[in-house]
Specification:
Layout: H1 4-12, E1 19-23, H2 27-40, E2 44-49, H3 64-78, E3 85-92, H4 102-119, E4 123-126, H5 141-158, E5 166-169, H6 192-208, E6 216-220, E7 226-228, E8 231-233, E9 254-257, H7 267-273, E10 276-281, H8 283-302, H9 311-321, H10 337-343, H11 356-369, H12 376-379, H13 385-392, H14 398-411
Helix pairs in contact: 2-3, 2-14, 4-5, 5-6, 8-11, 8-14, 9-11, 13-14
Length: about 425
Amino acid sequence: MPDLARIISRNRAGEAIAIPSVCTAHPDALEASLTLAETLDQPVVIEATSNQVNQDGGYTGLTPTAFIAFVNDIADRAGVARSRILFGGDHLGPQAWRKLPAAEAMEKAHRMVADYAAAGFTKIHLDCSEGCAGEAPQLPDEITATRSAALAATALQHAPDPTKLLFVIGTEVPPPGGARTDDHGLIPPTTPEAAKATLAAHREAFAALSLPLDQIGGLVVQPGVEFSPMEVHHLPLARDPGLLAALTDWPGLCLEAHSTDYQHPAAYPCLAELGFAFQKVGPALTFAWREALYALDAIRAQNAWASGPSLPDAMEAVMLVNPAYWQAHIHGHSADPRTERHFGLADRIRYYWPDPKAQSAVAQLMSDLDGKRLPDPMLLAHFRADEIATARASHYPLPRALALARVQTALRPYFFNSGPRS
């Protein structure tokens, strides 16, 4: 079993080491991620969010137990060892029920955390930072920590082996309207003082309930990475926000970075050097999968093989019929709304792939390409040479193998070699 505590220890001892946390429920993105981890003989964390998976099914329709079974089934069919997979729960708190009064929302959050722990999730991100009905949108550290500690107690009570739980605390999310930038267009990192305040509040809240402080293993802070609808805010590689200084009294703690999608490959070892042993990725993987399907659709159109509407047109129709997953997020400020629906970096289109009409459109694409000759000179207009080579070595039909290879291209930089911190 991969040991997150060992990864934290090695990072704190000076190694530029980190583990990717893959946050997606898309079966092909999951298979590509798991297969890459198997090929590289590396551990990987697979995460589910509170809105995605909960006792009510979330937007995936999966409970925590069902999600683990879903991922394990993908791993088994792909020949991936279950022993390299760790399961994490992301933003576990009252978010999915924020329209309710705090007491009711927290009651549901306790049930959810109990289910995550009982199911076998061991990396538990406690996030009670957002207010419920009648409360401020963002809550102070003291309230956040008190509620989070109460959820930690519930998790410990329901875990098959409480000692295996590792808690991640804190949150850094973009404010309404998008990522905040400074005068130079950079994302301001969390200050060491703010990180220390969050840790102090959680120390006090955990101590009040006699909870083990040494099971707090991660702190979510902002290192200076983010993406807005059509722009990536890249990590300033030469900047050190000094956040490791906030961890002086916490030897078993590392930093966790969210929204690391789309960064330059050099950013990931740099983040590890800054203390970020947990690096989360999600939308970039389904973005890559969509990118590959649209490339295959372009090949189909170029060769007049299409037997129906284009995949983008089919997906546009699906999204317009049910705008719930994009309407509040796409306003046309950065690009034409259709462009944002299909190419926005938040990848809101990912919510629509399970739709039966979307599934049918993808199946039709693959059917139209079945048995067709796809020579390298044509593929190289849309895919990298290494992706084509990987796909040709796969046992899958070439079109599907190309899509899986594109997802692996997006994830590969997270599996960098470790080395001494400079």
